[in-house]
Amino acid sequence: MTGPDKQAELQALLTEDRSFAPSAAFTEQANARDPKIYADAAKDPEGFWAKEAADLLWRKPWTQVLDWKPPHAKWFVGGQLNVSENCLDRHLTTWRRTKAALIFEGEPGDQRVLTYQDLHREVCQFANVLKSLGVRKGDRINIYLPMIPEAAVAMLACTRIGAVHSVVFGGFSAEALRERINDAKAKILITADGGWRRGGVVPLKQVADEAVKDCPTIEKTVVVRRVGDKAQVAFDPARDVWYHEAMATASAVCPAEPMDAEDMLFVLYTSGSTGKPKGIVHTTGGYLTHAATTVKYVFDLKDTDVYWCTADVGWVTGHTYIVYGPLANGATALMYEGTPDYPDKDRFWRVIEKHKVNIFYTAPTAIRTFMRWGEEFPKRCDLSSLRLLGTVGEPINPEAWIWYHEFIGRKRVPIVDTWWQTETGGILISPLPGLTKTKPGSATMALPGISVDIVNDEGQPVDAGYLVLTKPWPGMLRTILNNDDRYRAQYWEKYNLKYYFTGDGAKRDKDGYLWLLGRVDDVMNVSGHRISTMEVESALVDHHSVAEAAVIGRTHEVKGQAVSAFVTLKASVRGDEALIKELKQHVVGKIGALARPEEIFLTAELPKTRSGKIMRRLLRDVAEGRVLGDTTTLADPAVVAKLKTQYEGKDEG
Ligand code: PRX
């Protein structure tokens, strides 16, 4: 956060004085309605979490709530449980047996409803399929699927037999998928022939085939049929197995494997400040406790609700708030396969109207897109079923918050702005909808049982600085797969193992409300997707024409940030439009369409310090049209001045 514009933006945020108190009617029925919940949890956080954990089904009780040897935490030590049993079997002995667990809305308009009984059967069968393919407890399984019920089935089937899943978002390229499969040493890959997107087919199996060419640990690929003859699928009978064929003969009886509370549940890759993605490790008991508790209190979930989180299961939001949290609560969760603009820009609102969705959770970037499309789309639809709205993934600007409140919430529905990360496993900062007065743009305060602070570089509490977590929490990551040193260095060393460093900047206002300000490291947030500048830089320099590349996240009205690249070419190469296009495509091939640079600017030189470090901060000033910050440490200040003039002339792509 530098530069005068950012300061002005910040000032505007902190003078945001509109506030919205929960209605008496909402509070009266809320799962969290007594403000004492905060004080009680603050007095005894471990006691708070233990009480919540006790609502789960344990095969063996724990002997110790928390064993904290910084930076390593163990929660519910000695306890044993199974996640699929908690999400499924537990509900089968109640009236929920025939309740809808998942409502699936396919992009072409097809619909599937799976009751808890149906989902349980399918999960048990698929767990048996995995076993028949040689999967054992502790094995790693890669899941590369569209947003179809089989994604949840595959995840839950892994948890049933103690296999560790690693879900990779279907928008990642073959190369990105390969890197993740190889890091996790996955034995099985679960994919589909394709998925529907804007009326076309995403050729997942083709990408998967490309990826597994260099994945020596993959023994079998299980293929779900989703698009049928709309996709060209090469089938290798020695390696590939059709999901529907294997399921046809699989038994529906599969006992759940009792797992240690600290057994690994899943790995999920995310971007850090280096080029290599980090495999974030989550374990069983603490994660499930955190997921179930936050769904109950933050989303105020009731048995009669239809709940819809629009994230993809390839991201942590999909893990915690489509699959594990809602199902652990016996909820009805909706899954939608496609994009919000297909066949028309009212698709989300049509889905809400059709399924009478009560709770809706989406990203600020989506809300800003809806704003741009105009309110006529939601206005056409009956949204009266909605009773709670949520946002996640990036800071929400007050304007977007107010739009959401007015045109989706119709001025009567509370909004929860939830702050968290892949690493945190679940929500940490958010209003409680029946208790917290909200302010547009502020995630408000830490949840009960969570301790946060804002500190400076020295670790002293300040009103504007770095957001840290001052106590361990159950859903926290346990390590980075194959790299505990990086775990320690990345999150804990900055404050000598005392605080968890989030990488986010934050401010506290006069009422003690927290305002999240975005990343303070080299991580970009593009449409709510986390992408490291280094990852895109390595993809660019991997191209034979590129000598050097510097990438920044430029403020973007809809996406939050857009990838902006400054590239110097090798001496013999002539830069033109065609090359710029090729470079963009090269990044898509290396990482995926989500990382495609919005613009690539070819330049003869990059601004560097005397020690040769590229000054990205100045590039950001250039890209955002600001007055240049301090240039005194530059080897040659003329480089950036020239770049600015050139950039403003916009002879780029
Ligand atoms: O910068 C914060 C931002 O997203 C980052 C985490 O990204 P990821 O691990 O991909 O998880 C996204 C979904 C949980 C954070 O470090 N972020 C997430 N939620 C918010 C947010 N920034 C501001 N307000 C939020 N509500």
Question: Can you offer a commentary on this structure?
Answer:
- This protein is of the alpha/beta class and 653 residues long.
- It has 21 helices and 30 strands.
- The strands form eight sheets. An eight-stranded mixed sheet has the order 12-11-8-6-7-14-15-23, with helices on both faces. A seven-stranded mixed sheet has the order 5-4-17-16-18-19-20, with helices on both faces.
- Helix 5 crosses helix 7 (149-161).
- The chain starts with a helix and ends with a helix.
- The model has no long low-confidence stretch (mean pLDDT 95).
- The structure holds adenosine-5'-monophosphate-propyl ester (PRX).
- Adenosine-5'-monophosphate-propyl ester binds next to helix 12, strand 20, strand 24 and strand 25.
Structure, briefly:
With 653 residues, the chain is an alpha/beta fold. 33% of the residues lie in helices and 23% in strands.
